[in-house]
Amino acid sequence: MTKEQMEQIVSENMKKIYLYCMRRLGNASDAEDVASDIMLELLRSYSEVRDDAAVHNYMWSVAGNLCKSFWRKAGRMATIEIPEDYEGTYMITPEEQLIHEEELLTLRRELSLLSEKYRQVMIAHYIHQKTCEEIAGETGLTVTNVKQYLFEGRKKVRKGMDMQREYGVYSYAPEKFTMDFWGDSGEGYWSLFDRKLPGSIMLSVYDAPKTLEELSMEVGVSMPYLEEEVARLLEYELLVKQGNKYRSGIVIYDNAFLDAVKRAAREALTENIEAIRAMVKRGTELLKETDFTCYKDDENVRGWFVLMLILWEAVQQSESKLKKPLTFPLLANGSKGYVMGQRGEHEREVSGFYGMYTLNHGYLRSLNFNRLTDRVVNPFEKGVRDVLLACEERRGETSEWENLSDMIEKKIVHIEDGKICPNYCEISETCYQEIMDKMAGEIDFMADLSARLREHAAKTLAASTPKDILHAEEIGSILSMWKILENMVPIALESGLLTKGTEEQNLTVFYIHW
């Protein structure tokens, strides 16, 4: 450590050092003298501190030794001069009052850091003035156990009050944590992360396993509140307890991983853009032989339909090409699937995939790409289904007039001859299957490409995931599953393969009727 670094640390801790001396010595004048000696000793011995991370332990070690040395040399009890106007009442100096308040705050802090049983016994005895026998009767402990908890609790509090504790980064600058789920049912999991604290707990223990006390200081929350949150995360197996420490039970991925997957997908697609261009051209020719229709139809609309058909089916087929198939493990809520988390903010390329939304006479496929359009469809929003059903049957009315107005404004549907009609592409399931069969080679080529990208992502995530956490490769494969679709959209636009289309067209929705 350099002299300049030590000077900076001493400057930042002058007040803390002085208050520490006041608490230990009980006299303002003595505290000032010893605090000065401590600072001088730190500045003199800066070169002895080899590890910067240990400087604070060294600082308080020096402070403790010099305070002890002062008492040994003084060999006397601390005294205070009696003022002339003394009338028989003990006079508390401003410095003593400050120290008293500081000690109370420190005592409360240390009580909040005790585990539940220690905290319960200490508060009952020292705050509520209950006897050991009364505490034993209320807690179900033996009197001997109560005494043991009091003895050990006093040691823990005394040790903590002599320490310089520092709150962790999650206590004042929590990162964003987003839960992600892939499987049958995420019931129970989503509501766990309505607040920031559970996410901060997950991120903190993912960085390194922690005891409850360490976790309390890291997230800046006292034990009584923290224990309940930890218990719920344990119940859903998102946390795992090992000894007296807690670690994450799920994979948490970050922007670095997502960006790496995105780069790999863009590179692979860019390298094959001419082959993809040929696929789209051939597909649009084949489409002319089917019952495909679309409002404001043109070659660009047909190109998007063919491109999405090839890539969607390729991603589905890539599942069977993976070396490590998905196992869908049993979850704590009784369903099968994967729970994972994302740290930090990340720009999403899509606002939703709806692969098969069943209506009365067919099903809707909606691939809502932000780069392509902001006029997207979420068929699960309240009232949207009624409009889609009316559009499917070409009815002239719907009970959801407000939704109909919104969908007309977004160019998802339009009114023609008094009937609700789609702005999106339509094709029969028979013709859709015919196109798939005729383009089986192209779909298989893209499925191989997708599988390679997914395998690469699986290994990348596994390499950055703690070894104790299961299913990292499978989750890497899941997270990269749609990247070939997401990244194809900007590449198609940038390369001039396709364009955004007209205002009247909706390029993200396809309807396949039976």
Low-confidence blocks of residues: 76-80, 86-90
Largest sheet, spatial ordering of strands: 6-7-11-10
What's the number of helices?
19
Distance between the termini: 75 Å
Query: Helix share of residues?
Result: 40-55%
Question: Which value, in Å, is the CA radius of gyration?
Answer: 34 Å
Strand content: 5-15%
- Total separate domains: 4
The number of strands is 11
| Coarse morphology | elongated
**Could you report the average pLDDT, rounded to the nearest whole number?**
87
Please state the structural category: alpha+beta
Largest sheet entry? 4 strands, mixed
Order of helices and strands: HHHHHHHEHHHEEEHHHEEEHHEEEHHHHE
Pick out its properties:
19 helices, 4 domains, 514 residues, 53% helix, four-stranded mixed β-sheet, single chain, Arc Repressor Mutant, subunit A, Rna Polymerase Sigma Factor, Chain: A, alpha+beta, three-stranded mixed β-sheet
Walk me through this protein's architecture.
It is a single chain. This protein has 514 residues and is of the alpha+beta class. The chain folds into 4 domains: 3-74, Rna Polymerase Sigma Factor, Chain: A (Orthogonal Bundle); 99-161, Winged helix-like DNA-binding domain superfamily/Winged helix DNA-binding domain (Arc Repressor Mutant, subunit A); 172-249, Winged helix-like DNA-binding domain superfamily/Winged helix DNA-binding domain (Arc Repressor Mutant, subunit A), CATH 1.10.10.10; 272-513, no CATH class. Helix content is 53%, strand content 11%. It contains 19 helices and 11 strands. The strands form 4 sheets. It has a 4-stranded mixed sheet. The chain is elongated. The model is unreliable at 76-80 and 86-90 (pLDDT under 50).
